[in-house]
Amino acid sequence: MRYIDPHIHMVSRITDDYARMADAGCVAITEPAFWAGFDRSAEGFADYFRQLTETEPRRAAMYGIQHHCWLCINAKEAEDTGLSREVIGLIPQYLDRPNVLGVGEIGLNKNSRNELAIFEEQLALAKRHDALVLIHTPHLEDKLKGTRLIVDALKNSGLAPHRVLIDHVEEHTVRIALDGGYWCAMTLYPETKCTPQRAVDILETHGVDRICMNSAGDWGPSDPLSVPLARREMRRRGHVDQLIQRVTFENPLAFLSQSPRFRVEPASV
Ligand SMILES: [Zn+2]
Q: Which residue of 12, 72, 89, 215 has the smallest Cβ count within 10 Å?
């Protein structure tokens, strides 16, 4: 059964992860630009954007996985507004590259004034370029307030809600995203964020319309195979293949296909 992982940081993963994901049915991924674990210079971002648009698609293709990406300055480094504006100035020259879907993962980290200003500037960038948007919502105690601030900024941006995906939703924020008309996704982490069990609970409570699941596999403790793990949990609870396929393949396909650059090879069987 094929699946799409709409949020995974492959620059932090080894090539064997691509092989294991392909074996588990992964046919396409999307990789948002994020914090590398240390703060970078604008030149560092230019190199990172080349890695996301040139190197990773080639590495993924060796395993039959279509690689796509999103470009931005992440919420953590957005605290430095000078650096952020330099990076935002770099982005347009990469937006037309063949695997770029839009602007992301933008959002808030600590809900600060600087983060919000840079978030709004990147929403304006997406609007100018008619780009899709992938949103990072803050963690733990900052999530609820941050998600509300994000939705307010989205409403003011003039972007169409169906072209925006709000990521890392949990039990207390999923309705805010869905009721606003946005797509959303649950990030499956072994311990922090959402476990596969909690994610399936959320699906059983809120339905499967406009909800996706992703692994967000990165340089921290995370599992690049957590989408297949959640599928196993759905199966264990008696959900039919059609529903599992809807959440892990058809939903991300529907959202991402709003970009003409999103590609998935047709099924061979
Ligand atoms: Zn991420």
A: 89
